[in-house]
Amino acid sequence: MVEFIARWLCHVGISPLILSRGYAGGDEVNMLRRHLIWTPTKFGVGANRAAVASQFIQRYGYVDTRESSWYRKQQLGHELNVSVDSENIGAVVLDDAMQHWSLWRDLDIVMVNGLTLWGNLQLLPLGPLREPLTALKRADAVVIHHADLVSENILKDIESTIRGIKESIPLFLTKMDPTYLFEVGNTNANIPLTALHKATILCVSAIGSAESFVKKIQKMGARYVDRVDFSDHHAFHVKDIELIRAKLRELEGKFGSKPIVVITEKDYDRDPEILKQLYPFKTFVLCSALMVMSYKGSTEDSFKNFLKDHLRLKFPAEN
After folding, report:
1. Which of 78, 188, 242, 250 is placed for a possible disulfide with 73 were both Cys, Cβ 3.0 to 4.6 Å?
2. Cis-peptide, bond into residue 16, ω within 30° of zero
3. What is d(CA 152, CA 158) in angstroms, rounded to the nearest whole number?
4. 227 is a domain residue
5. Alpha-carbon span 172 to 4, nearest angstrom
């Protein structure tokens, strides 16, 4: 979602700054840097995000979005087809920051994983929640992620729970659409998803929702799909590589051909070099893009309009 919003900001002529704590070596930030390399997006990493933001604004300057080419074109009723005005920062996007109280926000968007939801409803360390569900009252919108992997009945239950907390809150659905693969060591080679068809696959991941990753691979027509899961942000070590290689040899003996390892982009960007040690087994990286699904009148366009309207709410009336 951070990347989606950053790309939209660039598209409408606003240069964004992404702020992140940079957990576990900054795998997510590394991935975002790679994806947004040809945009004016800037990245600030550090626990004190207010201080980091201040440093970036002092270095690059700040531009009021009312002065951007996007706002001027909106006032004139022109189509959105503009370039970013300058290196000046026009918006700040915080990653994973609902509990970051030291920064004032124009907009809070809460992402809910449709597969894992709220677990046992307990707060850390007894459960997965950082705050009670009633904290959703502070949100300006809720996005149900991986919505394509759950049933309509479950979606209805999730919506009912959310609306029971804040009835009028805007609700959107998203999914991750696989786009292509690349092989470890060659990020420029776009390999079609059909390369996994009828293959024996070992999914290896150290992410928060391995289930969604595996389910996507299972839908690609593979002959057989197995998995090795690590904890979120886990840094692979030599012993992990040996464990994975042992599993690969087991699958090779069972099916008579070399299996293919498939990992996520986050796992790749955490440490690209160590994954080369899986050779001679091929290791592919699955690339995906976030898509907004149509749901009860909510679409990608309506989500962008929601973002646009919240920007407009901060503008004073024209004289």
Report:
1. 78
2. no
3. 10
4. yes
5. 14
* Dihedral Cα 26, 31, 32, 34, nearest 10 deg: 120
Rounded distance, CA 245 to CA 277, Å? Answer: 9
Domain match, 90 and 4 both: yes
| Domain membership of residue 196 as a residue range | 177-289
Give the count of domains, the chain. 2
For residue 314, the tally of other CB atoms under 10 A from its CB is: 11
Q: Alpha-carbon dihedral of residues 288, 155, 142, 122, nearest 10 degrees?
A: -100
The answer to whether 44 and 53 are in contact (CB under 8 A) is yes
CB-CB neighbours of 275 under 10 Å: 21
> Taking CA 230 as the corner, what is the angle to CA 123 and CA 244, rounded to the nearest 5 degrees?
170
Query: Does residue 203 fall inside a structural domain?
Result: yes
List per-residue pLDDT tens for the chain, 319 residues long: 999 999 999 988 889 999 998 765 578 999 999 999 999 999 999 888 889 999 999 999 998 776 656 566 665 555 545 455 568 899 999 988 888 777 888 899 999 999 999 888 888 888 888 899 999 999 999 999 999 999 999 999 999 999 999 999 999 999 999 999 999 988 888 999 999 999 999 999 999 889 999 999 999 999 999 999 999 889 999 999 999 999 999 999 999 999 999 999 999 999 999 999 999 999 999 999 999 999 999 999 999 999 988 876 343 333 3
Domain of 225, CATH number, reads 3.40.50
Say if 284 falls within a structural domain. yes
Establish if 139 belongs to a structural domain. Answer: no
Q: How many residues does the chain have?
A: 319
